[in-house]
Amino acid sequence: MTSPTPDDQWRRPADAVPPPPPPVREPAPYAGPPSATPPPAGWRPPLVVQVPPPRELPPQDLPRLDEAEQRARTLTYGIAMVAGAVMIVVMLVLCGRALF
């Protein structure tokens, strides 16, 4: 007698009989779409409220906007220069420690 293997449960039985064919059923004929009930008398689609036109925006002060943008650009460049200087100092310290 041989010992069972893990694949035994997936093998076909030795005296397998072919299964009977499935019963053949005639498909039901198409009955058409279901009938719709008409809407009640006086029914109307929902009314969408018309929104008023948007109000006018205040005028822009272009010289003031340009001045604010220039200040922001100066601040950004200053922060970038400080960050770059810090990175250079850190790189010099790390390279100095590696060499000496």
What is the CA-based Rg, rounded? 42 Å
Structural class: mainly alpha
Q: Care to count the β-strands?
A: 0
How confident overall, as mean pLDDT? 89
User: Termini, distance in Å?
Assistant: 77 Å
Shape: flat
H/E series: H
Major sheet summary line = none
Low-confidence runs: none
Number of helices: 1
**Could you state the oligomeric state of the chains shown?**
single chain
Task: Describe the protein.
- The chain is built from one helix and no strands.
- It has one helix at 62-99.
- The longest helix is centred in the last third of the chain and has 38 residues, at 62-99.
- The radius of gyration is 42 Å and the shape is flat.
- It starts with 61 loop residues before the first helix and ends with a helix.
- The model has no long low-confidence stretch (mean pLDDT 89).
- Keywords: Membrane, Transmembrane, Transmembrane helix.
- The chain crosses the membrane at residues 74-99.
- Residues 1-67 are annotated as: Disordered.
- Residues 16-43, 51-61 have a biased composition (Pro residues).
Short synopsis of the structure:
The chain crosses the membrane at residues 74-99. This protein is 38% helix and 0% strand.
